[in-house]
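User: Hi! I'm working on a homework problem where we have to compare a predicted structure to a textbook description. Could you give me the structure for the chain below?
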Amino acid sequence: MFVSLCAAVVLQGALFSAEASVGQDANTVVLHDTYAEAHRDAVKLGKPLLVMVGTDWCGPCQMMKREILPKVREHGALRKVAFAFVNADKDQELAQEITGGGPVPQLALYRKSGEGWTRQILVGLQTVEEVEKFVQDAPSADGKSEKEPRSVEERKHAQSIETSKDVSANAVRTARRVVGDEGKSS
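Assistant: Happy to help. Predicted structure tokens:
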């Protein structure tokens, strides 16, 4: 029993605190210390990017991190993805971007398609089987394309641009509404 417990602790440590060796083979398990490393290899190797967003204080997050995901890895479901864990308390900006302000735990899976990147999420505590199914056959649920998941540098640069685009788009909508309303009243 003690040996089994020690093996589980070692496996968890290997899964979430050290980067596995990265190869060019599509079946190599790629685990990363940071989102930036996982993003880089997802783009470089053409692998889907799987990101779990959670916190240290969240019970379901810890169950996903310590019990569910190690079993998913043992079953081989993480071989074809670049995987990273994002702590929502330590990297609030990145967690907000990935979850859209939604609840944790949350798994976000980015896949490249002919039309761009698709994103699908899985929210809450899940079973091993649910996570494996999500990773294995997760085409875009809504068919919408997303932008490519951005690197840390791109996120910071794009944030100011997106804010000004939103302001401009709102100004255009407001101007059209005013012109439209004036045209009806004359």
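For your comparison, note the following. The radius of gyration is 20 Å. Residues 18 and 129 are 25 Å apart (CA to CA). Good luck with the assignment!
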